[in-house]
Amino acid sequence: EDQVTQSPEALRLQEGESSSLNCSYTVSGLRGLFWYRQDPGKGPEFLFTLYSAGEEKEKERLKATLTKKESFLHITAPKPEDSATYLCAVQVAGANNLFFGTGTRLTVIP
Amino acid sequence: DGGITQSPKYLFRKEGQNVTLSCEQNLNHDAMYWYRQDPGQGLRLIYYSQIVNDFQKGDIAEGYSVSREKKESFPLTVTSAQKNPTAFYLCASTKDRRPMNTEAFFGQGTRLTVV
């Protein structure tokens, strides 16, 4: 059964304290892995797409990496405005939608 | 500015009522999707449409109906047959008709509550 697991469920960081969020997946044929940011009461906002193991993408303080079993979202020197829920989703070969994890709720304390 | 507009932001439904959630996009995207989000669960697909006048059931279509009469619009009706409709509903679109292979744009959501 296709499965996407995100950890931790919640993470509290001091401003400037770097850390990583994990998205592990067990799917039959990965076509793409997506990271989204979601603010409370809002729709998800696209961050990155990764397609193959070894691929990396960066945007400001965020860097996403992909292996054959998991993806990491590294946050370097976070700021309070980085506080949000970060969602991971995978697209599986032959499927017609994205399969989402439950998210990691990040809080960055000033 | 291009984007997806969902309305209303908050909706209250009485038991036994049907309600319709609106989703409009001006991105000229081919494909549109409806997701449901519940606390502690990932987004789950209700319906999707890759072209006008055609739509497909997602993982949790029971108790819901959709239409796609115009490229820009993809309304979702929550019927009285949906046993647990209280949730946050999200509409999304992608430029490509191929399923979700590209960046998806999401609306701001409609929070539906049964009273």
Q: What does this entry look like structurally?
A:
The complex is a heterodimer of chains A (110) and B (115). Chain A has 110 residues and is mostly beta strands. Helices cover 0% and strands 60% of the residues of chain A. Chain A has no helices and 11 strands. Chain A has strands at 3-7, 10-14, 19-26, 30-38, 45-50, 56-59, 62-66, 70-75, 84-92, 98-100, 104-109. In chain A, the strands form 2 sheets. In chain A, strands 2, 4, 5, 9, 10 and 11 form a 6-stranded mixed sheet that branches. In chain A, strands 1-3-8-7-6 form a 5-stranded antiparallel sheet, with no helix packed on it. In chain A, a hairpin with a 3-residue loop joins strand 7 and strand 8. Chain A starts with a strand and ends with a strand. The model of chain A has no long low-confidence stretch (mean pLDDT 94). With 115 residues, chain B is mostly beta strands. Chain B contains no helices and 11 strands. In chain B, strands 2, 4, 5, 6, 9, 10 and 11 form a 7-stranded mixed sheet that branches. Chain B has a 4-stranded antiparallel sheet with strand order 1-3-8-7, with no helix packed on it. In chain B, a hairpin with a 2-residue loop joins strand 5 (44-51) and strand 6 (54-57). Chain B is globular, with a radius of gyration of 13 Å. At the A-B interface, strand 4, strand 5, strand 9 and strand 10 of A face strand 5 and strand 10 of B.
Can you give the helix content of chain B as a percent range? under 10%
Number of helices of chain A: 0
H and E string of chain A: EEEEEEEEEEE
Number of strands of chain B: 11
Structural class from helices and strands of chain A?
mainly beta
Q: How would the global form of chain A be characterised?
A: globular
Strand share of the residues of chain A? over 45%
Largest interface: A-B, 24 and 27 residues
SSE order of chain B, one letter for each helix or strand: EEEEEEEEEEE
Q: Which ranges of chain B are low-confidence, i.e. pLDDT below 50, for 5 or more consecutive residues?
A: none
Bulk shape of chain B: globular
Query: What is the mean predicted local confidence, pLDDT of chain B?
Result: 92
Q: How far do the termini of chain B sit from each other? A: 35 Å
Compute the CA-based radius of gyration of chain A.
13 Å
| Low-confidence blocks of residues of chain A | none
Q: Cα distance, first to last residue of chain A?
A: 41 Å
